[in-house]
Amino acid sequence: MRSESFTPAFVEYIPRAPEPHTLYISESFAITAHLCACGCGTKVFLPLSPAEWRIEDREAGVTLRPSVGNWDFPCRSHYFITRGRVEWARAWDRERVETARRSDERDLESYFRSRERVGFWRRLWRRLSQRP
Ligand SMILES: [Zn+2]
Fold this sequence. Notes:
- The chain has a four-stranded mixed sheet with strand order 1-2-3-4, covered by helices on one side. It has a four-stranded antiparallel sheet with strand order 5-6-7-8, with no helix packed on it.
- By secondary structure, the protein is of the alpha+beta class.
- It is globular, with a radius of gyration of 14 Å.
- It has two helices and eight strands; from the N terminus they run E-E-E-E-E-E-E-E-H-H.
- A hairpin with an 8-residue loop joins strand 6 and strand 7.
- The site of zinc ion (ZN) has 8 residues, from loops.
């Protein structure tokens, strides 16, 4: 099911079975997680830091910046979460994705740090979901 809105949930650990429409925010681990807004069921982990993603939680709703670009997933969806609402953006073409990647890599240190953190959560999630 496609999500048109997200509510923030401040947690320590990202839950094993995340709910749709929920943007999980773990300040202790500086990471957010949500189910892809397109409804494909992919868990999207985004690291929080000034060089990565930022969260603004206001009464009007939660805002996540920059946009969520799920290029590595089959759905390739691209959207913004603004004041709790999903704003769909156009899927980027390959060239645009590469340009964005290159500019991300400019800050190499934070780039690799974020990859490690996201890798850790993906591995943990996989391990937990394999349990009987
Ligand atoms: Zn998706």
